[in-house]
């Protein structure tokens, strides 16, 4: 077992309105700890010293719920590719390291406290069309819809998105294109998604833009930061669908309208 | 005897009469309906947004009910259903291997060690096929064959291939499907969604559940919500052990508050220990990560024959390895059910043959499968699981065997419900892992997702209408004094937690409680250990209320305060679990009492005295909870010793 | 028409507008570059080309206005997207590591501004001729050579062409992505085409000031 001494610089902000600041905390960590377990250790020390612990979102701690997310040394979820902060382990650091921890920053992700940000804009993007309109009970037999294996696999590649927001955090423009494109692509590649394909992309893009995310200028930082390695190929597909849908849309249908 | 007058708890299971295969159809046809025009007038409160909660909220909103849905996470998509890996069972018989509703039913009853209700389980098997259809239509990208048909695999404890899956992320994909259905209803205005809200009390008026009190976790505001029905879909209570595969936020608070308001709690000691988790690496460990059981399809479980063998696994020749599952259970081998596989691993470690740090681990070895099928095939099947293992442990499982150890995973116990999924409190329905109904004393792999979605999509939407249509509701809104009282109690409790300002953190108490429970109410339980735990828990609880340190205030985001409230409830709930374990003097499924075992160490059930559900009733502060009994009737299945040899 | 307005309102639509106007400008630059390198053949060939163009008379304003429109749309979209990006980012990070983006992609905005300044200079220099030391209508080849005699001017041309190259490199690759042309099998061609066109156009143009600086242009 190897112990390492680290110096953390952590963004502390008491409330959405408060002016935040970086505070420095020393910590002793074990190489087998997860990054969040290391923060737990810091927090135990803070509580003992009478300082409020660092607030950070986390839940499953196995890389799938998408709750956790923070900038670790300038990188969303830290230095290891395809790894969420909760699955990042301290063996990725070495004794004596300084680690800078900041919240994900974007106008559409306002800070609530410390490292906790409000990502409800993502839910609203899904509300604008990120679904198949099928009521409970109305489905045909599962095998009545044939899906080529390769398409199912590619849809799955996109559907793996955990909605953590690392794409937005890493993008110099704070664009939510990868998140939106992952959902658009997931459903666009499946037969089930075809009937609403155009209306979906129009509605979701409109919502995405209205949430105050920046536009995509093809930096590809999102793809590099994505813990699920979702490809920007999905963004290209969404662009294509959006262009087609925009040109074909008839005025009376009204993009983004929702019905039961 | 003190407390409430001794009226026995009403435990009518409401299982309809008639042949097993016709019960649900007949019942469904006989259920009362709420007219479409009136549904909008009924407000249903759904607490929780996992598979059960999201599917129920969406389906109820589609029907026309006015729904509010609450979750403590920042988005309904984060509920812990998302972490389920392996798959979802359904009696589709797509593989032509002889599966049927009947067989899934029998497997589930047997897997649950004959401690579940026939009627409920049969219905679960029946609707299982509809779930797959529904999810496919939603766009869940299930694994496919080259011809475009749905693929299946066999899964822990099953001899047919009835498990549908989406890589190792089936729970995620099913939850995203339900979440999308939910978001669609939110967009329509049919569901009002409250994220970052935690339910802290249930409000009962004139004997009916009529609302909840929640805390807005961002502003700290204590709010009341009134409705005609409250649906708890709040998951399991495995975090009473501190270390479990549950998400950090999983808790018993909603169910426990409902218990204190009169909802009976069934079989709290029935917890499932999952055999294939990554072992603990140190004191700082905050949670345990499950490796999908599907790994046991190709992995072989072994420990060294010798004690304290410190050689590297590759240096131990085959003759000096004990493939203990294959040895003990030749017909099921490495696919033995979860409780059996877990206990076998514990035994091997207790004998001093465990591997890894602290000797609490066994090998799960893929070398045979890799040499037979090639690394590419193994990679295709398990790549994401292998990567996850490598990320956590720093070891490459293609080259060296995985180390695994059992961990608390699922709780079969839960709020007691009848066939209509209603608790002993009228107007309180409980679905998914939060109820107790379908898994008996042990849940089969890939059946949790099935049950959560069955309840939410295909059972509750029918049965809730029967309750609403058959009830004359008094006009109630949040101005009723019961809401003010409940709110005040919540505020007082919060204030009390903040005022203690003792010396120990919430986590330190939680860890201590968890260790106590793991040692004495975990994989193997004894009278002596349980009695010790029952002495120690009240002491620990007293220490908690005297010495816990919760900093900050009640009117901001305060994660310590959230945790403190949950741990305070675990401190009480743990006692109920231990009492339940103590009074169930038999071994069945996940409940293994060392006093009740066969000479070769297998569980010894006592059907004469314990073929029943133990339903615990709250009787007031300081008064021991009362154990009531719902006798289980087995009309269609022969009670038999569960054998996987 | 509504579709066009709808497109323009969205961030994706603005990017599509940038792509299409960018492609038009690339097409113009290819032809412009080919005609320019005629200077290496002899001045007279360039003069002939210039005379041919002037032969169109007022009709020449049609392509000129189209090009001007493309430039205006390209810049307007760029300006709006930059403003949206700034607003979207909100506060800035203390540390923001950007491992994936290229130097070319990060310099699009300032590179674009430099190119705009260059275009204005270039038109005043060789089309209008008011900042030319000795501008004579019709003597295109001679004007070109004389205009390059000033070392600072030639150097400015050279630097501008490097900026144009960087702009091309990311811009052309970006066109594929924005117009939805992305397929793993063919993606290596996207980079290849971007590099090829960059070398051809920016290299072709840059050869003229480079030759002037080396004293090879007569």
Explain what you see:
The complex is a heterotrimer of chains A (260), B (645) and C (218). In chain A, the strands form 2 sheets. In chain A, strands 2-1-5-3-4 form a 5-stranded mixed beta sheet. In chain A, strands 6-7 form a two-stranded antiparallel sheet. Chain A is elongated and about 60 Å long. Chain A has 260 residues and is α+β, with helices and mostly antiparallel strands. Chain A folds into 2 domains: 3-113, Ubiquitin-like (UB roll), CATH 3.10.20.30; 120-253, Alpha-helical ferredoxin (Fumarate Reductase Iron-sulfur Protein, Chain B, domain 2). Chain A has helices at 35-49, 120-127, 149-159, 166-170, 177-188, 197-210, 221-225, 233-248, and strands at residues 3-12, 21-30, 71-72, 75-76, 98-102, 111-113, 116-117. Chain A starts with a strand and ends in a 12-residue tail after the last helix. In chain A, β3 and β4 (75-76) form a beta hairpin. In chain B, the strands form 5 sheets. Chain B has a 5-stranded parallel beta sheet with strand order 5-2-1-9-17. A 5-stranded antiparallel beta sheet of chain B has the order 11-15-14-12-13. Chain B is globular, with a radius of gyration of 24 Å. In chain B, a hairpin with an 8-residue loop joins β18 (612-617) and β19. In chain C, 29% of the residues are buried. Chain C is globular, with a radius of gyration of 19 Å. Chain C is mainly alpha-helical and 218 residues long. In chain C, α2 crosses α4 (61-89), α2 (11-36) crosses α9 and α6 (108-128) packs across α8 (151-178). Chain C has one domain. At the A-B interface, α1, α2 and α3 of A face α3, α5, α6, α11 and α12 of B.
Spell out the CATH superfamily of the largest domain in chain A. Alpha-helical ferredoxin
The best one-word shape of chain A is elongated
Percentage of residues in helical conformation of chain B: 25-40%
H/I helix tally of chain B = 17
Q: How are the elements arranged and paired?
A:
The complex is a heterotrimer of chains A (260), B (645) and C (218).
Chain A lengths: L2 E10 L8 E10 L4 H15 L21 E2 L2 E2 L21 E5 L8 E3 L2 E2 L2 H8 L21 H11 L6 H5 L6 H12 L8 H14 L10 H5 L7 H16 L12
Parallel strand pairs in A: 1-5
Antiparallel strand pairs in A: 1-2, 3-4, 3-5, 6-7
Chain B lengths: L19 H11 L5 H4 L3 E5 L3 H13 L2 E5 L17 E2 L11 H11 L6 H21 L24 E2 L5 H19 L2 E4 L2 E9 L2 E9 L5 E5 L2 E4 L20 H8 L4 E2 L4 E7 L22 E5 L16 E2 L1 H5 L9 H13 L11 E4 L1 H7 L1 H19 L8 E10 L2 E2 L12 E3 L17 H22 L11 H20 L5 H16 L5 H21 L11 H25 L23 H4 L1 E6 L8 E6 L14
Parallel strand pairs in B: 1-2, 1-9, 2-5, 9-17
Antiparallel strand pairs in B: 3-4, 6-7, 7-8, 10-16, 10-18, 11-15, 12-13, 12-14, 14-15, 18-19
Chain C lengths: L1 H8 L1 H26 L6 H12 L6 H29 L13 H4 L1 H21 L11 H8 L3 H28 L8 H27 L5
């Amino acid at each position: 077992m190897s112990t390492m001494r680290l110096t953390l610089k952590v963004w502390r902000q008491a409330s959405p309105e408060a002016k935040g600041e970086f505070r420095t905390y020393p910590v002793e960590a074990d190489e087998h700890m997860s990054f969040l377990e290391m923060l737990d250790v810091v927090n135990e020390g803070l509580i003992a010293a009478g300082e409020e612990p660092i607030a950070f979102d986390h839940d499953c701690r196995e890389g799938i719920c998408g709750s956790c997310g923070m900038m670790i040394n300038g990188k969303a979820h830290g230095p290891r590719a395809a790894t969420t902060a909760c699955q990042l382990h301290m063996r990725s650091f070495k004794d004596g390291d300084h680690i800078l921890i900041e919240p994900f920053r974007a106008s559409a992700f306002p800070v609530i406290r410390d490292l906790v940000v409000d990502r409800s804009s993502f839910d609203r993007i899904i509300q604008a069309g990120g679904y198949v309109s099928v009521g409970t009970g109305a489905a045909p037999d599962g095998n009545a819809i044939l899906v080529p294996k390769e398409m199912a696999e590619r849809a799955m590649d996109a559907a793996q998105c955990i909605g953590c927001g690392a794409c937005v955090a890493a993008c110099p423009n704070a664009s939510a294109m990868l998140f939106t494109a992952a959902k658009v692509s997931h459903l666009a590649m499946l037969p089930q998604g075809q009937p609403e394909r155009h209306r979906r992309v129009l509605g979701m893009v409109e919502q995405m833009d209205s949430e105050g995310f920046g536009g995509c200028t093809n930096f590809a930082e999102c793809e590099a930061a994505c813990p699920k390695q979702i490809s920007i190929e999905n963004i290209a597909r969404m662009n294509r669908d959006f262009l087609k849908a925009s040109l074909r849309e008839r005025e009376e249908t009204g993009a983004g309208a929702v019905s039961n | 005897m003190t407390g409430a007058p001794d009226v026995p708890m009403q435990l009518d299971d409401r299982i309809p009469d008639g042949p097993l295969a016709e019960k649900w159809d007949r019942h469904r046809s006989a259920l009362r309906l709420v007219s479409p025009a009136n549904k909008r007038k009924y407000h249903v409160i759904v607490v929780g947004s996992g598979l059960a909660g999201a599917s129920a909220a969406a389906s109820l909103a589609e029907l026309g009910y006015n729904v509010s849905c609450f979750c403590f996470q920042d988005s309904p998509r984060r509920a812990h259903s998302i972490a389920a890996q392996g798959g979802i069972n359904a009696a589709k018989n797509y593989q032509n291997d002889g599966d049927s509703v009947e067989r899934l039913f029998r497997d589930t009853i047997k897997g649950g060690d004959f401690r579940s209700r026939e009627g409920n389980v049969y219905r679960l098997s029946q609707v299982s096929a509809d779930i797959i259809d529904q999810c496919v239509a939603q766009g869940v990208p299930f694994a496919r064959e080259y011809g475009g048909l749905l693929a299946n695999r066999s899964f822990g404890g099953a001899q047919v291939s009835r498990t549908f899956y989406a890589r190792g992320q089936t729970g995620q994909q099913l939850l995203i499907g339900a979440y999308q259905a939910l978001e669609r209803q939110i967009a329509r205005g049919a569901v009002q969604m409250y994220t970052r809200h935690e339910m802290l009390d249930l409000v009962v008026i004139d004997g009916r559940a009529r609302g909840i009190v929640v805390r807005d976790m961002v502003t700290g505001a204590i709010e009341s919500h009134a409705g005609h029905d409250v649906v708890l879909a709040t998951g399991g209570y495995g975090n009473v052990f501190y270390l479990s595969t549950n998400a950090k936020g999983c808790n018993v608070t909603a169910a426990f508050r409902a218990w204190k308001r009169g909802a009976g709690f069934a079989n709290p000691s029935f917890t499932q220990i999952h055999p294939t988790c990554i072992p603990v690496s140190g004191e700082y460990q905050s949670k345990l990560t499950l490796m999908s059981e599907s790994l046991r399809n190709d992995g072989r479980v072994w420990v060294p024959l010798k004690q304290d063998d410190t050689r590297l696994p590759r240096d131990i020749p085959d003759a000096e390895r004990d493939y203990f599952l294959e040895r003990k259970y030749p017909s099921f081998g490495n696919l033995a059910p979860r409780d059996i596989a877990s206990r076998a691993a514990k035994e091997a470690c207790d004998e001093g043959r465990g591997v890894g740090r602290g000797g609490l681990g066994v090998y799960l070895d893929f070398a045979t499968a890799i040499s037979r099928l090639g690394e590419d095939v193994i990679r295709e099947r398990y790549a994401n699981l292998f990567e996850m293992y490598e990320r956590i442990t720093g070891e490459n499982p293609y080259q060296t065997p995985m180390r695994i150890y059992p961990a608390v995973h699922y709780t079969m116990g839960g709020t007691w419900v009848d066939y209509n999924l209603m608790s002993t409190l009228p107007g309180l329905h409980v679905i998914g892992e939060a109820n107790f109904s379908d898994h008996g004393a042990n849940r089969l792999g890939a059946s949790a997702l099935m049950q959560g979605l069955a309840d939410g999509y295909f059972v509750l939407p029918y049965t809730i209408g029967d309750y609403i249509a058959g009830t004359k509701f008094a006009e109630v809104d949040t101005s009723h004094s019961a809401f003010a009282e409940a709110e005040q109690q919540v505020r007082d409790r919060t204030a009390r937690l903040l005022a203690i300002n003792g010396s120990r953190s919430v986590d330190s108490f939680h860890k201590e409680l968890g260790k106590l429970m793991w040692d004495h109410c975990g994989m193997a339980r004894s009278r002596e250990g349980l009695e010790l735990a029952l002495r120690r828990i009240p002491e620990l609880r007293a220490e908690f209320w005297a010495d816990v340190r919760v900093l900050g205030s009640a009117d901001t985001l305060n994660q310590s305060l959230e945790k403190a409230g949950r741990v305070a409830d675990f401190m009480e709930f743990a006692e109920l679990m231990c009492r339940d374990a103590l009074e169930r003097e038999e071994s069945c499924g996940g409940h293994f009492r060392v006093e009740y075992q066969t000479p070769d160490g297998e569980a010894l059930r006592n059907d004469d005295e314990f073929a029943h559900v133990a339903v615990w009733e709250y009787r007031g502060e300081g008064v021991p909870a009362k154990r009531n009994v719902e006798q289980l009737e087995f009309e269609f299945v022969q009670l038999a010793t569960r054998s996987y040899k | 028409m509504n579709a066009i307005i709808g497109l323009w309102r969205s961030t994706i639509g603005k990017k599509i507008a940038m792509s299409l106007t960018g492609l038009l400008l690339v097409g113009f630059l290819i032809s412009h570059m080919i005609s320019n390198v005629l200077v290496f053949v002899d001045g007279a060939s360039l003069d002939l080309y210039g005379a041919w163009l002037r032969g169109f008379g007022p009709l020449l304003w049609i392509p000129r206005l189209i090009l001007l429109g493309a430039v205006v749309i390209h810049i307007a979209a760029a300006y709006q997207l930059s403003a949206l990006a700034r607003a979207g980012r909100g506060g800035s990070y203390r540390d923001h590591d950007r491992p994936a983006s290229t130097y070319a992609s990060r310099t699009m905005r300032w590179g674009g501004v430099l190119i705009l300044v260059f275009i204005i200079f270039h038109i005043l220099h060789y089309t209008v001729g008011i900042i030319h030391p000795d501008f004579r209508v019709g003597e295109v080849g001679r004007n070109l050579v004389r205009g390059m005699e000033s070392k600072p001017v030639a150097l400015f041309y050279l630097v501008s062409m490097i900026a144009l190259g960087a702009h091309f490199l990311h811009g052309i690759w970006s066109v594929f992505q924005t117009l939805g042309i992305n397929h793993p099998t063919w993606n290596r061609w996207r980079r290849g085409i971007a590099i090829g066109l960059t070398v051809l156009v920016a290299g072709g143009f840059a050869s003229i000031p480079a030759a002037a600086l080396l004293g090879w242009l007569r």
